[in-house]
From TrEMBL:
SUPFAM superfamilies assigned: RCC1/BLIP-II
Domain RCC1-like: 10-390
PROSITE patterns: RCC1_2, RCC1_3
UniProt name for this protein: RCC1-like domain-containing protein
RCC repeat positions: 8-61, 62-112, 113-166, 167-220, 221-272, 273-324, 326-394
Keywords annotated in UniProt: Repeat
PANTHER family noted in UniProt: BTK-BINDING PROTEIN-RELATED
């Protein structure tokens, strides 16, 4: 029996007026339903990261593409910014394996475990040992990390986090809310990587960052957070900012396997497919049927009958994918179409997109991409700013 040939496709929806969806000259400010990005058809994609107004795409061949806002040269290139184009200068010798987009800066990790940065640098978020009003448009190595083997990178709005193979967590950039985790009485910004000494010896699986808060997930499933906590986004049963990592104790027994952050909210996925959210609920992004903030983790009950395999957070919206049914659920802020529900209404409970998605068992949903073209099988979901993306395979 011959295997059906599949073609990689990427779907995007949400805020488009900056060009961050890469749809190429779309006259729409908002894209309300999943729309195929033609320039990515057939390309093997490793990951996508979206900031407030720009997007980075990492291809499996090591190239990086960018599009969107470029006011601080965060795209790393200067022309046709409403379409995806290669970040060439400064990256061509490097094979990139991960991308991370801050509000207006960009960070990549290479196959050689090196870190390069570019874009806004007013608070030292590039980690190059300087701060300036002008931005840096060419990717350059963070030289002080040359002695480290970096495994992961993550960006908050104006700060950066790395995880090394020795389990060390390094941070730099804005520290206005303690989001660098270096303790009280530190500078409001730091322009070179500093390592969080109190985490030494803790086996760490993942680092993540929200607008102004930071998280780590230990290999045993414990979640630690620090930084801004005005909305309870650290899950510590209070709203005081934290200058050092604090464990979110209510999650200790939940076997967390993945964490992600919005601007002021946090989402966690358990090994058995349950979703917990906490922090800002102003737009319904916590999915609990209200617009309240939550200062403790709370399970999204509407998803409790489904085994969720992936979650993603945009600025003020959340996504969850259920592979058995092929359903992609979204909730939260919808004003720019980022929920993919053909409306700009906010939703405070999970609603599945009547889109082109199919499950692993080929149970089809009711609609195709922009009402035309083939159904697709979801491989991964991504969100950032007011944008949403799905990396998928055409199954026709």
């Amino acid at each position: 029996m011959f295997k059906t040939k599949t073609m990689p496709v990427v779907l995007a929806w949400g805020k488009e007026n900056s060009g961050a969806l890469g749809l190429g000259g779309s006259e729409r400010n908002t894209v309300l339903t999943p729309s195929q990005i033609p320039s990515l058809d057939g390309k093997e994609i490793r990951s996508i990261s979206s900031g407030v107004g720009h997007t980075l795409v990492c291809l499996k061949d090591g190239q990086v593409l960018s599009c969107g806002s470029n006011d601080f040269r965060q795209c790393g290139r200067d022309t046709n910014l409403n379409k995806l184009g290669e970040v060439g200068e400064g990256l061509q010798p490097h094979h990139v394996i991960q991308v991370a987009a801050g509000a207006s800066h960009s960070v990549v990790l290479t196959q050689a475990h090196e870190v390069l940065t570019w874009g806004k640098n007013t608070e030292g978020q590039l980690g190059r040992g300087d701060v300036e009003e002008s931005s840096r448009g060419t990717p350059k190595l963070v030289k002080s990390l040359a002695v480290c083997c970096v495994l992961q990178v993550a960006c908050g709005y104006d700060h950066t986090i790395v995880l090394t193979n020795e389990g060390c967590v390094g941070t730099w950039g804005s520290n206005a809310y303690g989001q660098l985790g270096l303790g009280p009485n530190k500078s409001p910004w730091i322009n070179i990587p500093n390592f969080i000494t109190c985490l030494k010896g803790l086996p760490i699986a993942q680092v993540a960052a929200g607008g102004n808060h930071s998280l780590i997930l230990s290999k045993s499933g414990a979640v630690y957070g620090w930084g801004r906590n005005s909305f309870g986004q650290l899950g510590l049963n209070d709203t005081s900012d934290c200058y050092l990592p604090n464990q979110c104790r209510p999650l200790r027994s939940q076997r967390i396997k993945y964490i992600c952050c919005g601007e002021n909210h946090t989402a966690c996925l358990t090994v058995d497919g349950r979703v917990f959210t906490y922090g800002a609920g102003t737009y319904g992004q916590l999915g609990h049927g209200s617009y309240n903030n939550e200062i403790l983790p709370r399970q999204v009950i509407e998803l409790s009958g489904s085994e969720v395999s992936q979650i993603a957070c945009g600025r003020s919206h959340t996504m969850a994918f259920v592979p058995k049914s092929g359903r992609l659920y979204t909730f939260g802020l919808g004003g720019s179409g980022q929920l993919g529900l053909s409306t700009t209404e906010n939703k405070n409970t999970p609603v599945f997109i009547s889109g082109p998605f199919v499950s692993g068992t080929a149970q089809h949903t009711s609609m195709q991409v922009d009402n035309q073209g083939p159904d697709v099988k979801v491989k991964s979901i991504h969100a950032g700013g007011d944008h949403s993306f799905v990396i998928a395979e055409d199954v026709d």
